[in-house]
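Board notes (copied after class):
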Amino acid sequence: MVQNIAIKISFDGSCFHGWQFQKNALTVQEVLQNSWQELTGEVIQIVGSSRTDSGVHAKGLIANFITKTSIPIEKIHLAYNTVLPEGLAVIAAKKVPLEFNARFDSIGKHYSYYLFIERHKPTYLRNFVAHINQSLDIEEMKAALSYFIGEKDFASFMDQGSPVRHTVREITGINLKFETKNILEINVFGDGFLYHMVRIIAGTLVYIGNGKINKSDLPDLILAKDRRRLGKTMPPQGLFLNRVYFENELFGDDSLQNFLFDASQRTGKINV
């Protein structure tokens, strides 16, 4: 029987060259497809909710594929994990309608970016944080958060390399909090993101924190649609895709209601 299976995936981005299949590099999509073929003999095409870049991590990327497998739904993730390499795991699996598409049916995403603020370089965390070797004005960064909220043309926050039809996106929530005394987490919620958008938001906040950009100039900088006037694109290893949201609950705490609540609780707030 033909089934559409949705899976929730976690992976260490330092093990892969991003999500999307490439001819000469190992990607998450390729490994998932090849591993399923190794497990079942079946050739599948996996659709991912997000095309993460090389080095970017995921705690909850969603994907789906059409299959005729006889493996019970509740055991698919267990069976899948027996053939997956280190750094990649299927957390859960669920049968969904045949028309479900993980990419086009998502209504929101939650990303986090981690800054390691310290004079010395990170060692065991080097693949999971970006190093900032100077102090930052956290209050100035906090005061800038509200300028990102809302539906705007975020062309200034997009790098070249991924053509899109339009550059209007809505940021529904953003916050800062210290995970430890020297690791700052930037959380961003939105209906969709442009190429490198979250990494550029993080870089712009760093520039505001070190005085290179004045927070009050942000509205004009957004309207200018000039990538060169904003902060640098931060390195990929600090970025995590935490959760993908859908109209109806898929794997728990990922429905439209969850998205609206999660974003509203984090809009322009800071915990230090």
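Comment from the instructor: The first strand starts at residue 3 and ends at 11. DSSP finds six helices and eleven strands in the chain.
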